[in-house]
Amino acid sequence: MSVKTVEQAITAAENLNETLNAFLEIDREGALERAAAIENSDGALAGLPVAVKDNICVVGLQASCGSRILGDYHPPYNATVIERLTQAGGVVIGKTNCDEFAMGSSNENSAFGPVRNPWDTTRVPGGSSGGSAAAVAAGIVPVALGSDTGGSVRQPASLCGVVGLKPTYGRNSRYGLVAFASSLDQVGIFARRVEDVASVLGVIAGRDPHDATTADVPVPDYTAALTGDLKGARVGFPRALFGEGLDEEVGDAVKGVVKVYRDLGVEIVDVDLPHAQYAIAVYYIIATAEASSNLARFDGVRYGFRAEDTPELRQMYRRTREEGFGAEVKRRIMLGTYVLSAGYYDAYYLKAQKVRTLIENDFLSAFERCDAIITPTAPTTAFALGEKVDDPLAMYLNDIYTVTANLAGVPGISVPCGLSSERLPIGFQLLGPYWSEPTLFKLAHGYAQARPFTERPPVSAPPA
Amino acid sequence: MPLEEKDIAKVAQLAHLELDEEELKVFGPQIAGIINYVEQLNHLDTANVTPALGGLTPEGEKTDSARDDEVAPSLGQKTALAEAPDPAEGHFRVPKVL
Prior knowledge:
heterodimer; A: alpha/beta; 36% helix; B: mainly alpha; 2 strands; 39% helix; 4% strand; flat
């Protein structure tokens, strides 16, 4: 059974890749071998085909991070999430395209060309985990892994019409996830059904001795939370976030979700996140500062690309990085280096860490009054390829609803809630307190039961 | 604060990037624009706020990551060198330093 399912996924990935460019590597032979080997496994995910973002290490497959500087780098070890996934019978069928080093909101920063949105191939899938989102949306795989540093799972999930989870910071191991901004990065999960996100999280979550930032917090049975009974739950509505900059159709759709919740017996309470408006500014200081440090390791010495004809060491470093990195990565390394440089550290980096505390405190007080907060996931539906490439700040504002969760470390989930007049998916986001994934799953699943999202995109694999 | 091309060149040097003329021209105004945007944080009084130190939850803070100091298997020389652009006799070879 598992071999057949895995083969169908591989064939769909191969057939649709010319159109979507969602995969950077498809491992037909290896995946079929692994599927055959676990044919009789009774693991929780036995025979489940999974696509994995190309910044997560899988032995035998490349890990380019969408960058020329890593190119066909093949990591010598598995990420912990991959170890756990495969132990449970999951079969990795390939590596998905992404913005270079997960930096971007449109997938246009990949060195290997952008992914196209299966709902409209002239539009972006979102980013940075655009390939994983598109692969799930097009029905190639039921589940994919991505990484979320500022919204890189939730925003593409919204733009592609699938469910996307960023867990609590420390819920999943980052060992084997190529680091972008270590205090913000988490491995996240895409699926069409909330149930699948819940079962995969149950498998990959938990303490890992290889990652000191994983927390010693028990992993519950997440599927047990999917009761369908939402009575008595309290959802916070941050009215101020539904104003300027939000597309009207998206705003109306999310307000429609609030109404559905009310009808399901959920109490809606007004909440305020007074510092949310500063989140993008804080994020682009902290994330770039951490990136400038993390990406210092790419210097042409131990792995990946090295520039040719560089007879002197420092020249080799500089030329390798100049030729190996794309424009957005260089821009962020520059910005991060600047905000950490002598004389500017207090004004930018320290200031940002203080405002980060204020953003955390906003959430702590809001969660005294509610179990979760509802917002749009992204301010618009999928935009056109090329529309925002020349304006980095406009691109950064895509993350306005998602970055707060990474700054505060709280979990967030994006859930599809319909199509726009242009037949593009709209998503809403639920944010919860630390370790509240069961509550998020319960609320997301309750909504999906009441208003199932059953539309399929024009670019789609044949149903299994 | 206006960022001049020489400031950008200085940052590029610190970041080990050899930017070309075109990049120096484009990055200057873009980075200045982003810096201008983030300066809105100065509207907030943070004199009495403790800076956040990373993303750890309270439970993460409490998690003890210490382990016994015991020798455990590692990648080994052969595997560690397998992806190097220029390995030589068990080492990472680099161009001359001086």
